[in-house]
């Protein structure tokens, strides 16, 4: 019944990612077949910096569909069900999430919101409640099993599990969808938890594929201003009205 | 803090739905322009039964993309967060869901699983726990507000809310996506709650657009056999191995 | 074998569209169930102008997913296969297109590009070539039929049909996808033909649902500046670098 | 102006594909975090055959979403514009296609349908027509350039290019979308050209990832019967009515 911390692990990325994106961009404008150019891309005969520069420049002009050819897969643990519910609303993505129907929560772990952690009184109330949750879950499971509902006991007992209950998820998004995810979820207006997930994913993306994610993040990072209405702006960048 | 019952309301459907689907099918194979045929479809000069028969026959041959032109919108209340989390995994759909960040749960309603409702001991345990939830939520909100976290109090206090917490959602799916939803969620293997939602939606669909949904439902309803492996089959239809 | 002109017909829109979008927006932030508010929305008891203002304001703050609940269906004729190939690249949409496999082109109609129409010499060359196309198509069909390939004669003879060959398509997009379509295709950098289609669709959308489409169109119409790099900018709006 | 033959090149696949799919499946039902199991999967400490068997069995029970985590990228040349128009109708995929607006067709290559190739009279008519196409394209480009339309000359001249005109495309699909593609396009009812593309892609998939694609192909390959109506059945498998 302990608190669980966020962990975001990189699992996989389409190989030769930059070259693949470069090849896809080139195929749009090139008379030849990029498969013929592919060995030169892989061998480095075509300088990776040249590839990166070409891709950056073309993306700046608004043509970003070729970055879809590369996908990234992450394994995430230490997030609440509240957070996973937000994540799976992103529809251009693939998810495999731990099931509360199949996995019993005999030792439920939970996410402790930082604002609650900082206030001793709140933290105490929260933690004592988590103990009550575990007890209610176990009691209900036992009762259901005792009444011959063994195969469905998890499924029904989980109704008492909190939004704070920890979950794990494997998620795959292509680079274009990742950029969109970061636009929304790295914004200071996003909820703290999904923002923490997005920030970790973005750091991995910047590390693995800098040519594509160098200026990734909330919309303001690309725009140079905040697209929100002034009353919601966080102040990191000026709002558009104050640009000039 | 009462129990809340499922309610599925029909909100909207693309108008002249059968004619629209018929027109879309016809456009694929017809030399003329269906917009020229449209007035005759709307006036009934082309018999609706003829339209329905044509559509059914073409769908049977596996050509079902034209039914995507018609969408249905439902408003659903009285479902748990566990259930809504399952629903929004269907990605070819649009959702607007009540936010626990914006709406305070001062009088939280909840979903009581039928299997728990039937066992007095379980029901009592469940209901007394729901009272504890309300109390923990209110306490945490108060503490957060007292510590100057008013604007984020809902957002963090909701971590104690249970999967059972009632939610409301407006959802739109096109007919092809609806059929897929019913294939998975009307199956007896689906969880009871999402199956109840799917069954209500299917009843509305059959009523509003019988030509498209007459044989809607779990896969077995169209196949005439159960596509699951024998150990999971519910027995309503024979499994494929036992067909002959 | 005549030239064919563009025609874009409105076929259907989700009924009570503004109210449906308003209801979906409200459900996100509202404690009650929007289905209970629905009759008041339909009766006008809640002023449509209030609904429109609420929706516009919320969209401006970047929350636009509820407009997905409303879809529009158009029937388009008088476009080339080149144009339809561009249109169907928009993936959040549904299409039913006239098949060249099923429909014989015994009197092929074609699209004449305006730039060619304006130069007599070019127009003459184009039109005489279209006559050659018809003749090649008919010859090939006849040969294939004479060699016992009747059922596949259209399918193979159509390989000689030009990109200019006229096609017809029924298309459905939700309002969010429509906005995206207009962002790209109403831009002066888009190809003239798909821009003409997009402009007609936009005019219909503005007429049918002004609260949602009032400032629809190319990105610049919402941004107040051109997001393209300076060398591609058309001049209608200043580029971002020149904003201040 | 020569004929061009189909070529389908494998470009990329998500690395450690089987293990990634296995890990995603396991995360759904497993109490632990698959990232902790990942090194054992990569090192082979968990036998690849065990992984393959687990995945096959789970897929058979109808749970196939985890195979979405793996994508394949192909480069295709030697297909007609007719064929690419069919391919891009598959919406759960990413495409980068050679542009006829940017690439001049000074030496247009084309696809010769096999049925036409087999009939000398048809072949001759087809080939002489392709020469006419090249001549019309070049004439129109020259006229447009002479009239000051250089930058748009390709864009407008291409209206005379035939459906047979060769195109090149880079395409990425995840494994679930690939299976769907094969269901439709490997069927003997599919058009010969897109079927040839699908067959090549399937052969690559079977080679690269046999655990996922062993029984890939048209629907009949999984079902053991033909799901088409009897009048369209090719005879490779019995239709359902004749199963027993």
From TrEMBL, chains A, B, C, D:
InterPro entries: Thymidylate_synthase_ThyX (IPR003669), Thymidylate_synthase_ThyX_sf (IPR036098). Pathway: Pyrimidine metabolism; dTTP biosynthesis. FAD binds at residues 65, 89-91, 97, 174-176, 180. Gene3D superfamilies: 3.30.1360.170. Binds 4 FAD per tetramer. Each FAD binding site is formed by three monomers. It comes from the Bacteria. Its EC number is 2.1.1.148. It holds the Pfam family Thy1. The active site is at residue 185. Keywords: FAD, Flavoprotein, Methyltransferase, NADP, Nucleotide biosynthesis, Transferase. Its cofactor is FAD. DUMP binds at residues 86-89, 97-101, 158, 185. It catalyses: dUMP + (6R)-5,10-methylene-5,6,7,8-tetrahydrofolate + NADPH + H(+) = dTMP + (6S)-5,6,7,8-tetrahydrofolate + NADP(+). PROSITE patterns: THYX. Homotetramer. NCBIfam families: thyX (TIGR02170). Catalyzes the reductive methylation of 2'-deoxyuridine-5'-monophosphate (dUMP) to 2'-deoxythymidine-5'-monophosphate (dTMP) while utilizing 5,10-methylenetetrahydrofolate (mTHF) as the methyl donor, and NADPH and FADH(2) as the reductant. PANTHER family: FLAVIN-DEPENDENT THYMIDYLATE SYNTHASE. HAMAP family: ThyX. Belongs to the thymidylate synthase ThyX family. This is Flavin-dependent thymidylate synthase. It comes from Pseudodesulfovibrio portus. The gene is thyX.
